[in-house]
Amino acid sequence: MQTVAPExxxxxxxRADALRNRERIVTAAREMFVELGPDVPLDxxxxxxGVGNATVYRNFPDRDALVREVVCxxxxxxxxxxxxxxxxxxxxxxxxxRFVHTAADERISALCPMFAGTFDEHxxxxxxxxxxxxxxxxxxxxxxxxxGQLRSDVGFGDLMLxxxxxxRPPAGAACxxxxxFVHRHLQLFLDGLRAPxxxxxxxxxxxxxxxxxx
Length: 214
Prior knowledge:
The chain is mostly helical.
């Protein structure tokens, strides 16, 4: 008697509507974290996303999982902006400028308070996308320096720290009203990075290691 091997079940793929719901949740969470801070109730995020509470918890079992997804998604878009800048074959400093302005629009710095508390900032997903961003930004800076357009006494940390500070209004009342000043002030900062430098900088360039120890 010949036996018939059981048919293998294909791994189920998320339905299109489930993927859309997940994206809506992440988008709503990002908006509300920027506007109101990291402690916004998950029920309010569900309401903004237009989904039920159960849908939020089905996708993200706890707040940390949602926070991690938001941070990773923002950093992934920042990495893609850096890749676009590196793909440009024109002026190296203009590519750097476009990256900084695009990264500021992602408001990644407004998510910094969420790294406090129980959030695992060393989660493998976060470490991977962080390493990708760091490598790409350093490559953009190295190219501008090699072209003689970026002052040599500026480090990775100088660029990212100041860009973060300038694009991070405090969460809460009227935080979004300052948005109209962000790109103006970023351009003032970027103009100060151009070579040749008009004055020496005190101290030493801020490195990636300096940021991690801060």
